[in-house]
Amino acid sequence: MEPTRILLVEDDPNDAELIQLSFETYNFINQMDVVEDGEEALHYLLGKEGNPSPHPLPRLVLLDLKLPKLNGIQVLEAIRRHPRTRQLVVVVMTSSAEERDLEACYNLGVNSYIVKPLDFQQFVEVARQVGFYWMLLNQPPDLEF
């Protein structure tokens, strides 16, 4: 695991940019990789067509639920099923406040579920707090694959 790398799985370029800008105020990440759909997220984490991923595991995956190709719940399910990524820290940041999405994510072992605020300033502040907690305060297991 690379301790200062984040994988952002977000198909909305505006939300992705806001999250990236929010994290720039802290100097706790060296790399934020952005993928725009669920299939690309799994290729990043697990590899493709029998080939292992060339990417080190990120310390944190920020995952939207409403994604093209594979939705966030399908991505989370695949992450938790695979030995390489089973213990990876996954935080869902989504516009969905639906109870069934919340329950599905927690049943699959999500570390946190956050509904994106609609207000710009609140969105930026929530993203900062998420980054601060999961990158600086939280102690994840040492994953080596």
- How are the strands of the biggest sheet laid out side by side? 2-1-3-4-5
Roughly how much helix do the residues carry, as a percent range? Answer: 40-55%
Element-by-element helix/strand order: EHEHEHEHEH
Radius of gyration: 14 Å
Report the portion of residues in β strands.
15-25%
Q: What characterizes the major β-sheet?
A: 5 strands, parallel
Average residue-wise pLDDT: 89
What is the SS-derived class?
alpha/beta
Taking pLDDT < 50 over at least 5 consecutive residues as the criterion, the unreliable ranges are: none
What is the overall number of helices?
5
DSSP strand tally: 5
Shape: globular
Distance between the termini: 8 Å
Looking at this protein, list some descriptive labels.
about 140 residues; alpha/beta; five-stranded parallel β-sheet; 5 helices; 5 strands; globular
